[in-house]
Write a structure and sequence with these properties.
The complex is a heterodimer of chains A (about 475) and B (about 260). With about 475 residues, chain A is of the alpha+beta class. Helix content of chain A is about 40%, strand content about 25%. In chain B, helix 1 (about 5-20) packs antiparallel against helix 4. The longest helix of chain B is centred in the C-terminal third of the chain and has 33 residues, at about 155-190. In chain B, about 45% of the residues are buried. The chains are: A alpha+beta (about 475), B mainly alpha (about 260). The complex binds protoporphyrin IX containing FE (HEM).
């Protein structure tokens, strides 16, 4: 009896186990089906998104996630508002100056950061830092710049549509400024997103994008603080006032004494001009040839020989003599042989501010002349004096500015009527307190560029 | 006359670089000969610098000499990193061209540049642009090939990789060119950027390639649109290169020397 019970119990146990095994099997099957189904769903979704992308099945506009259609629509709206402003508001928006630019700039910066940290997880934020918006933005900026690259950028008296929409002074037009402001904001979001959380491998991105951001930010806000003044200094005189484009005078925190102003000139050139119009005759090139002592050359159809040449000279009687007076001009004695073998001889000179020029008549239509020499190099030997009693002697030359008391001083020009006899040197004084920040951005972009060169693109796709 | 030794430099660099071209499969010898050729030019520059007692930056001939030095230097650096033989020999060829022009036109040794161009930024600005144009032009050739494959065969992914890499290198040089130009302008005239037509078109070119780069990063598996962007960017590049002078805006450019 007992044994038979035991046998039954074992049987039951056995059955139970086999059922359990079946159940496990079923469970296993169920799970693997579930996995397959999940996989299938994933595949279908991927195919769907690919389908949408490739077969250009259109997602209705304004349905998330936003892409190119929404980006361009928004940008178009911004442009329309910009052009509206341009039509309605007064023409040149005054640029921001210290301290308003700092205040507005920091407000913008703080707002960008706050927005980023509070709305980081929203869909609208991921749109605002997405590549479709980036590309649309760069394209729209590109279109504006192309318009600027085609149409001359000069204020003109006309008042057509081009002028009314600001196309002839694009860089200070509302649409251009608004697109740039938008770019600054978007670039801020993009850079923040990729900077926090910080990953070392993103350093190339960080340098190029933050660099550009700093350049636009500091360059844009700082442009109003840039002071660009001119100063005329005369030999052996002291000057401490400079003037702006409206000829308003300002006292500077430094004084400049011009000790000497020098110009090295190229030799003048030979040229043929039309008698009536005075215009250069250019049947063949070269139409001008630089004069040297003993030069023999072909100019158009004439053979020209330079018999004498003085860099500075004066006329006395029927010829010129070497002379170094104030206003002495270059002169040359030339022999000209025409195609018909007629020989002409005579003196030519380009004259100076106090001496007449002289040309040689070749025939009824044409004359041989000497052009006014062009400057090779000009420089001012000056002494700077600052209120603290310091003195400093320097030579100012084009491309070699000197910084004194926060002002950068450039050799700009001279009295070009007087040429080499100018005793006036025109200097430019520039103060740009934002320059270090712009340079910081520029150097960051350079590092970004070197990173791009070094990293290239190959590694990324292969991995 | 300082420049009378120049012919030796020209001859030895030409010879060394020809040897490098012949032996272009032998890595070590090739590099050795190229570096020796560069050293000849470098030594001449040092010699000139000492004799003139100033950096050789003032005349047309002197700046050409500097191009002839820096082109192969950058070509070599690029080669070490990316193994583009064509780029290496292109830079050598251009360097020889500049040396050759100097030899044929000795008057350039004394032809002074206009004062604004006598700047230490001038040579890097030009050299870097030469590289940018070469890489970007090459990337466009690759893009044309890609478009052909796309429409008539099937696109080889390698072509796309090649285009991307060339654009990255070209874009890096183009950015450096623009940035050097901005620093130079700031140092020489007091403003970074004047929107002179040439500058404006260089900027448009830069934007064009910027679009390409971001598009590729975003959609690495979509080729057709990117290829078209690249082809279009090259059209803009050509406008920037040759076309600017014919536009209505060009009457006021400082970059039209010709
Ligand atoms: C100096 C100019 C620029 C350069 C050289 C540059 C370069 C790059 C590069 C190389 C990447 C790929 C990043 C990586 O490999 O990790 C990238 C990504 C990106 N860039 Fe730019 N870019 C520039 C300007 C801009 C601007 C002006 C914007 C937008 C207003 C922008 C928006 C973006 C975005 C949204 C990404 C994707 C970042 C991500 O989510 O992974 N970039 N950029």
């Amino acid at each position: 009896m007992f044994h038979s019970y035991l046998g039954k119990a074992q049987q039951i146990d056995f059955l139970l186990h086999s059922y359990l095994g079946k159940a496990q099997q079923i469970d296993f099957l169920f799970h693997s089906y579930l996995g397959k189904v999940k996989n299938d769903i994933k595949k279908i979704e991927f195919q769907k998104s690919n389908y949408i992308r490739h077969m250009s099945i259109k997602k209705p506009i304004w349905q998330q996630p936003w892409g190119y259609a929404e980006s361009f629509t928004i940008l178009f709206g911004i442009l329309c508002i910009g052009f509206g402003f341009e039509l309605v508001l007064p023409q040149t928006p005054s640029t921001l100056v210290f301290p308003i630019n700092i205040i507005l700039g920091s407000c913008l910066f703080v707002l960008i950061i706050l927005y980023h940290f509070f709305f980081r997880k929203t869909k609208i934020h991921s749109f605002l830092s997405s590549i479709p918006l980036t590309i649309s933005l760069i394209s729209v900026l590109g279109i504006l710049v192309i318009i600027m690259g085609i149409l001359p950028q000069i204020p003109s008296g006309q008042n057509g549509l081009v002028q009314q929409l600001g196309f002839n002074q694009m860089t200070s037009s509302y649409p251009f400024l608004m697109i740039n402001l938008f770019l600054l904001i978007i670039l801020g979001f993009v850079s923040l997103k990729k900077t926090f959380p910080f990953k070392l491998k993103n350093w190339g991105f960080i340098f190029s994008h933050w660099g550009l951001w700093i350049v636009i930010f500091a360059g844009g806000l700082g442009s109003g603080d840039l002071r660009r003044l001119k100063m005329d200094v005369y030999e052996h005189k002291m000057e401490w006032r400079s003037y702006d484009e409206q000829n308003r005078y300002y006292e500077m925190p430094l004084a400049i004494k011009l000790n000497d102003f020098q110009i090295d000139e190229f030799n003048p050139k030979l040229a043929i001009v039309e008698n009536e119009s005075g215009e250069l005759y250019e049947a063949q090139k070269p139409s001008m040839i630089m004069i040297e002592k003993g030069l023999v050359c072909d100019l158009q159809t004439w053979k020209v020989k330079v018999e004498e040449f003085y860099v500075t000279s004066g006329r006395a009687g029927n010829r010129y003599y070497k002379l170094s007076d104030f206003g002495a001009a270059p002169a040359a004695k030339v022999q000209v042989i025409s195609a018909q073998n007629d020989t002409l001889k005579g003196w030519i000179s380009c004259g100076s501010f106090n001496r007449p020029h002289e040309s040689l008549k070749l025939n009824d239509e044409l004359s041989l002349v000497m052009t006014v020499p062009e400057p090779k190099r000009f420089y001012s030997d000056v002494t700077f004096m600052t209120p603290d009693g310091k003195k400093r002697d320097v030579v100012l030359e084009v491309n070699k500015p000197v910084t004194v008391n926060g002002w950068k001083i450039y050799q700009l020009s001279y009295d070009d009527k007087m040429g080499r006899y100018s005793d006036k040197s025109i200097l430019e004084l520039v103060r740009d307190p934002w320059q270090p920040y712009v340079y910081l951005g520029v150097f960051m972009m350079m590092i970004g560029a070197i990173y791009m060169f070094w990293k290239g693109r190959e590694a990324k796709i292969e991995s | 006359m300082i420049w009378s030794n120049f012919i030796f430099v020209l001859l030895s660099s030409t010879l060394l670089w020809l040897l490098a071209l012949v032996l272009y499969k032998k890595e070590l010898l090739k590099r050795l000969f190229i570096i020796l050729g560069i050293t000849c030019i470098g030594a001449f520059i040092v010699f000139l610098w000492i004799k003139l007692e100033r950096p050789p930056l003032r005349t047309l001939g002197e700046t050409r000499l500097l191009y002839a030095f820096f082109l192969p230097v950058i070509g070599m650096i690029t080669y070490m990193r990316w193994r583009y033989n064509w780029m290496l020999f292109y830079s050598l060829g251009l360097a020889l061209l500049f040396l050759g022009i100097n030899y044929i036109h000795p008057e350039n040794y004394s032809k002074t540049l206009m004062p604004a161009l006598q700047s230490p930024w001038f040579v890097p600005h030009v050299v870097v642009y030469i590289f940018a144009y070469a890489f970007l032009a090459a990337s466009s050739l690759v893009a044309v090939r890609g478009l052909y494959q796309h429409y008539y065969k099937s696109l080889d992914r390698k072509v796309m990789l090649m285009a991307d890499n060339l654009v990255y290198l070209g874009f890096a040089f183009l950015s450096l060119g623009l940035l050097f130009g901005a620093l130079w302008a700031k140092e020489a005239w007091g403003h970074y950027w004047t929107w002179d037509p040439k500058e404006t078109w260089a900027f448009i070119t830069w934007l064009g390639y910027l679009i390409y780069i971001h598009r590729r990063y975003h959609m690495p598996n979509v080729f057709k649109s990117s290829l078209w962007i690249l082809a279009l960017a090259f059209v803009i590049l050509l406008v920037c290169w040759f076309g600017v002078n014919y536009l209505p805006s060009a009457q006021f450019s400082v970059h039209t020397y010709s």
